[in-house]
Design brief:
29% of the residues are buried. The chain has eleven helices and twelve strands. The strands form five sheets. Strands 7-6-8-9 form a four-stranded antiparallel β-sheet. A two-stranded antiparallel sheet has the order 1-2. A two-stranded antiparallel sheet has the order 3-12. Helices cover 46% and strands 20% of the residues. By secondary structure, the chain is α+β, with helices and mostly antiparallel strands.
């Protein structure tokens, strides 16, 4: 049941994201006077529709996207010089111009999309992707401000009974020959919250770690909160060789590839992790970082598709960084919702689901900006090209050029559509026969 609830939440948020993406196109288009004849969520056969004003709103059977039909997307033949159709590619473009012109009602040519200025076209076409970015921002804000993010705290999770050398497994069993760990020897217990260390108020685990490392070999007073009361203890951290870490938390290596170590104070305690709400100012930073990470993934999409083919048909296990499709997203949602472990409640699961859906909206934002039709980025690129030509003509004192003949991009749009369809089918197949395990 929890698995199904997770999938249902993902489906509802995904459909809402699609609907709002199309709203991002529709609202500015209507505001600029363009007639919007259709607004639909989904593709294929129509399940429900209703006409309000001059727009038909509805839902279709295949919930893998949506669309708004803006009247006059392509300039009519006479507006672009009546180009001849000498090849089948030219005939495709000609048919697209004719179909677009038929949608324009008599006397309403001024309401056609192609008539908009370049800035207005950009606002309309960027409205959808920007809506996905806003959704991702809102979802991340809910997670970070409402549920919090996993953060190590000054509350002790475990207290080691012995000092284990750095070159031995940290989880091995203590033996009689091992040196007693100073934390256990001083009376620290799991669940203690360190309030002060050497007279310094402790606000975070990172701060406490720094204080412990700096006090090696010194008898140091420490105050912990235990069962609602403050308990004063004295600890003497031992000096132990520990790896030197860089700014990313990775071990620093010497010329021979071995980890560099140095003697630091060691107490033998580990922290607990809690969901701690963040400040409002951290949300934009996190969204920006994840947007950049998503852009890096999209930039390497061809190579990732090749890897997907090799792992799927080569019967290799897919890595956790593999791209996934709609089936994979549903599987992730179900697994997050049905995850069973100590300390994990529905609040944690819901936060995980919302964070995953925020990542999905960031992917939709970045992917739709690829400058290829029929994606929004293709229309943006065409509008920028049209605007650039007009600016060059203005600077050179030449007559204002007519609209860019975007119908010539229709064959390319068909090709991209086929490629995207094949990618979608491959992702669905891979997510079924060789899913990513989380």
């Amino acid at each position: 049941m929890e698995y199904l609830i997770g999938v249902l939440i993902a489906v509802v948020v995904l459909l809402a994201s699609i609907a709002l993406h199309e709203v991002g196109h529709m609202v500015p288009a209507k505001r600029f006077g363009v007639r919007v004849s259709h607004y639909f969520v989904g593709f294929g056969p129509t399940l429900w529709s209703r006409t309000r004003g001059e727009t038909e709103y509805g839902v279709k059977a295949i919930p893998l996207g949506g669309f708004v039909r803006l009247v006059g997307m392509y300039a009519p033949a006479e507006a672009v010089g009546n180009p001849p159709a000498r090849t089948w590619l030219g005939r495709l473009a000609q048919d697209a111009r004719a179909a677009s012109a038929e949608e324009i009602r008599p006397g309403e040519d001024h309401r056609a999309f192609y008539r908009l200025s370049t800035p207005k076209k950009l606002v309309v076409m960027l409205g959808g992707p920007v809506m996905n970015l806003i959704i991702a921002f809102v979802l991340m804000a809910v997670v970070m401000l409402g549920f919090g993010v996993p953060t190590t705290t000054a509350t002790l999770g475990t207290v080691s009974q012995c000092v284990i050398p750095a070159d031995e497994p940290a989880d091995r069993t203590c033996t009689a020959t091992d040196e007693p760990a100073p934390g256990a020897a001083a009376g620290l217990l799991p669940g203690d919250t360190v309030v002060r260390y050497d007279g310094v108020a402790v606000a975070s685990w990172d701060q406490l770690t720094g204080l412990i490392r700096a006090s090696g070999g010194q008898a140091t007073p420490v105050v912990v909160q235990r069962d609602g009361q403050e308990v004063e203890l004295t600890v003497t951290p031992v000096l132990a060789q520990r790896p030197v870490l860089d700014d990313d938390g990775e071990p620093v290596l010497d010329g021979d590839g071995r980890a560099v170590t140095r003697a630091v104070g060691f107490l033998g305690v580990t922290p607990t992790t809690a969901m701690v709400p963040t400040g409002v100012g951290e949300v934009p930073q996190v969204v920006a970082e994840r947007t950049w990470q998503t852009m890096s993934v999209v930039a390497t999409l061809p190579a990732r598709m090749v890897d997907l083919v090799e792992t799927t048909f080569g019967q290799e296990e897919r890595g956790t960084d593999s791209i996934v499709g709609i089936v994979g997203v549903g599987r992730f949602a179900g697994e997050i919702a049905s995850y069973d472990a100590d300390g994990i409640d529905w609040g944690d699961k819901l936060a995980g689901l919302l964070e995953m859906l925020a990542a999905l909206n960031l992917a939709l934002f970045v992917f739709n900006l690829i400058p290829l039709p029929p994606l929004d980025g293709g229309h943006v690129a065409a509008a920028l090209w049209e605007g650039a030509k007009r600016q060059v003509a203005r600077v050179r004192g030449l007559p204002r050029p007519g609209p860019f003949d975007t119908a010539r991009l229709v064959p390319l749009a068909y090709g991209v559509f086929v490629v995207l369809g094949l990618m979608g089918v491959l992702l669905i197949y891979a997510d079924i026969v060789n899913p990513v395990r989380i």
